[in-house]
Amino acid sequence: MLFSYELTSSRTLSRSLAAGISLLSLLAPQLQAQVVLKAQPVEAVEDEAKKAKPAAPEKQDLNASWATQKEARAMTLSVPAPRGQIVDRHGIPFAQNRAANYLALVMPYMESASDAQVTAFARSTIDKANQVLGKTWSLSDEKVLLHYKHRRWLPLVFSVEEGLNVEITPDMEEKLKPLLGSTLVLQPAYLRHYPQGATACHIIGYTGKTRPLPTGPIVDGDPVFEEMEGREGIESAFDSDLKGQAGIVNVLFSPDGKRLSEDVRRAPSPGRNVVLSIDYNFQKYAENALKKHTTGGAMVIMDVTNGDILAMASNPGFDLNEFVPGIRQKRYDELTKDPHLPLYPRSFRGEYPPASTFKIVTALGALDSGKVDAKTQFDCPNAMEIGNRVFKNWNKEGEGSMNVVSAIKRSCNTWFYRAALESGADFITNMALRLGFGERTGIPLKAEGEGFVPTNSYLLQHRGHKMLPGDLANIAIGQGMVLATPLQVCQCMAGLGDGKRIPQPRLVLQIQDLGDRVVQAYEPKDRRRIDLNPDQRQTVISGMVAVVNGGGGTGHAAAIKQAEIAGKTGTAQWRINKDQNLAWFTGFLPAGKPMFAFAVVYEGEPGEDISGGKKAAPIVHEVFTNIFEKAPADDPMLLAMKEVPKATLVQEETTEKAVAVQTARPAQAAPPPPEKKGIGGFFKRLFGR
To answer: Do strands 273-276 and 508-512 pair parallel, antiparallel, or not at all (unpaired)?
Structure first.
């Protein structure tokens, strides 16, 4: 099997039109919503696809005596397909389709009519609708005449405001019933629908018009309504899979605009489904905590075992449905000018100084150099002079001599300055590159942040010298030139949690067609081998456990009762000119056998006094408490935690008490009951008169 789990049944994606559908009968059969998301063996896909391949529809010749009628028309039109669905790993929908109606004008043939008569007819018809609905919709004379000359056989939508089509609601339709007929019709179209609103908005993305509807003479292949394409997020990255295949229909009209015959040459085939690695519960818990605790921030959660991104949240966000069918300019301007940048995907595009979370990299690099070991003691004063600058510790009081475990627990800046200078720049920066910093993770979303790790070779090329001691001191504590995204920091923790390799971050599990067949599977894979020294890795983890659980640790606020967390706090200077700082908390759990890696960044407001322990750690506590406590009592994750053996003691440091580290490995939280939604009656009035 592709996966050891089964995707929960919850499919609300439209199937293609049934064979034999006719536009003459107003395409009455409904699009069904019956798909079941279930992982399948890859080897079965090809055979099943061959069996399921539909026979080509029998072509029919349109039969009508139209050749001698000057104003008759035979047209070959394109019927856009509904887009595929985007769902979470359990089948919970993030993006679906629904049908909408717009109010449209159909122009009859008026022999020898003047331009004034044509435009007067259009205004009169539209005014009747406006009086019923209390609207002021209109069409320019130029647009009316252009349509009458070239495309009068097709409906012309006029329920438009600020350049966007306005949907006719059921109440409005009821009021319009006496007017609907041969010249005033409801024109159906597909609309994207995002049932979770703003949840995962930066991941899902949104759609926009592929192109405006044609206005000139009708040519073969013209669409009957506007086609949509992905503009951001998964909607854009997997547009070719999601968009489906348009249908083709031949339609014959008499001179007076009456539809005489139609032949569906190819039914629209809805697009494929994209199944994400995201867990809806995890994503929602992360977003809720960020909204509660931050005005700007992000959180990423990954599965250490396979690289699955279970949550990738950015705050603030926006409601994706505001972009359907398009976003009004005033609202778009509000979003783009908002100083808190709601359109900005901080979790994977935001590049921040990683602050003291980078001390984990420095510790591993220093240990790897051989010039520092678990017993190496450095003094931790409140400041030290390097070159012609004084570099300070966060604690204004000196803390005496300590080893690497104590230094991680207390996040002592001056200890890490010494460790980095003793080891040399190459060991620190090489470890950073080894753990995935300074390069994109490769998730299929455009404009992912790359981050930056300054190296000796870079500085030689761009500045003419190797790294100076002051530069190295800054880098050692995650400041200066070094930058990272929350996703990169989480990826680093997944690598440390495993110890042997960094898993390739995986955002999409598979793509399925409408027959439940997996047409593309993205199997878990290693991004690279890192093969950390087991003893050195355990020394660093001991320090991270002490951060959350040891006396004087900086991350006590992250602790949860269900599992031991290994973590690291961080506080960084960020926008210095605005007096804004960052707070971080990152790590993994359970500490003894990691499954979940995480990273949280908190953007401080101007002048706000923040720290990783005070601002970011509580977010981790809230999210993972929700994950455990809101799962059903019989959930495998909770059962696994109950079966945890007696704690294994891991030495915290040479001079202090030991810290208990649990070794249980939890499973995932169960999803909420799946939603079931569908599309019905879409083609009922596609060419209605």
So the answer is: antiparallel
Beta-sheet pairing, 73-79 with 222-223: parallel
pTM for the model stands at: 0.85
Do residues 600 and 299 touch, judged by C-beta distance below 8 A? yes
Number of Cβ within a 10 Å radius of residue 457? 11
Helix 469-476 / helix 413-423 crossing angle, nearest 10 deg? 130
Give burial (CB, 10 Å; 0-12/13-18/19+) of 1: exposed
pLDDT in tens, 182-217: 899 999 999 999 999 999 999 999 999 999 899 999
For the segment 98-113, what is each residue's pLDDT rounded down to a tens digit? 999 999 999 988 888 9
What does the block give as tokens for 68?
A: 């001698």
> What whole-number distance in Å separates Cα of residue 429 and Cα of residue 362?
8
Q: Whose structure tokens read 């210095």?
A: 576
Q: 201 and 320 in contact (C-beta within 8 Å)?
A: yes
The H or E element containing residue 369 is helix 359-369
Strands (DSSP E) found in 591-657: 596-603, 648-650
Relative to beta strand 648-650, strand 596-603 is: unpaired
Burial of 253 (0-12, 13-18, 19+ CB in 10 A): buried
d(CA 224, CA 687): 9
